[in-house]
Amino acid sequence: MIQIQTTKDIQKLMKKYQKEGKTIGFVPTMGFLHDGHLSLVKQARTDNDIVVMSIFVNPLQFGPGEDYETYPRDIERDRNLAAKAGVDILFMPSVEDMYQQESTMIVHVKKRTNVLCGRSRIGHFDGVATVLTKLFQLIIPTRAYFGMKDAQQVAVVDGLINEFFMDIELVPVETVREEDGLAKSSRNVYLTEAERKEAAVLYQSLQYGAQLIQDGERDPGVIKKQICSMLENTTGLIDYVEIYSYPDLESLETLTGKCIIAVAVQFSKARLIDNLIIDIPSRKEGK
Ligand code: PAF
Asked: Which residue CA neighbors atom 6 of ligand 1 most closely?
């Protein structure tokens, strides 16, 4: 595995691969790798000649009071995991190199951000879109891999790629879960033992919502209420329980088509999110 630390060096290397006509799979991460990241690498490995992973804890996507300083980091462990998973190039730039002395540009995301995590994390998706624009520009990937645990991020990246005519195939990869259903996340390490047990209810509540839809319920208000009471009985502070169309993330009066049920719960030191995407067939007239 080649390790690269500067924007200049990665650009030089990627230009060489492009000239050789290699397909490039890109897995952007903020490190502290877990099975979710490794499943992205596995998919990228299958689809491409070269697999590039970036590890960069992006300060621009953390708001004041969020966990930028304390975000879990373990570069030695990440290096080993990335190499074992089959990453060819590990790119680990510094903040100074990515943002230079005085950044004067950001990418502002105008849609799909005033809901779910975007509602409480003002500027978060501008930070994500800005760093990804820079990373895409440096790496020029054929395909870019993102976990569906951050379904709102996938929707935003979809908009970014389409609106800026980027010649990149977005590959969403299914969420990887622990045995009890908890979605794998770098932030799970913040949970206390008791919270870790409680946290399984996030996925259970989503499955309960899906079951209600399966049983014929189409009123998002009713489903949200039921999910909320299930969460309230078991766990920490509910940040949101929401249902929207996907990927447009628009409110629906009656559920139909591709929809997302999403939850976010604040524990003592971690805010966890999870979601399910459900394709709901439209009802036939008269039924
Ligand atoms: O999902 C993440 O880890 C980050 O938001 C990303 C895509 C690496 C951008 O910093």
From this structure: 29
Separation between Cα atoms, residue 247 and residue 58, nearest integer Å: 24
Full set of structural domains in the chain with CATH: 2-173 (3.40.50.620), 186-276 (3.30.1300.10)
| pTM score of the predicted model | 0.93
Alpha-carbon distance of 53 to 32, in angstroms, equals 13
Q: For residue 2, what are the CA distances in angstroms to 118, 147, 184, 264, 280?
A: 35, 24, 27, 37, 45
Q: Quote the DSSP letter at residue 67.
A: S
Residue 1, CA distances (Å) to 53, 184, 221, 232 in order: 10, 25, 50, 46
Nearest CA to 124 out of 136, 135, 108 is that of 108
Task: Mark out the alpha helices in 48-192 (DSSP H runs).
Answer: 75-85, 95-99, 116-120, 124-139, 151-163
**How far is residue 279 CA from its own chain's centroid?**
20
pLDDT, one tens digit per residue, over 173-214 is: 999 999 999 999 988 999 999 999 999 999 999 999 999 999
Ligand 1 mutation target, pool 98, 109, 117, 150, most atoms within 8 A of CB: 150
Q: How far is CA 156 from CA 100, 113, 126, 150, 248, in A?
A: 25, 8, 10, 10, 9
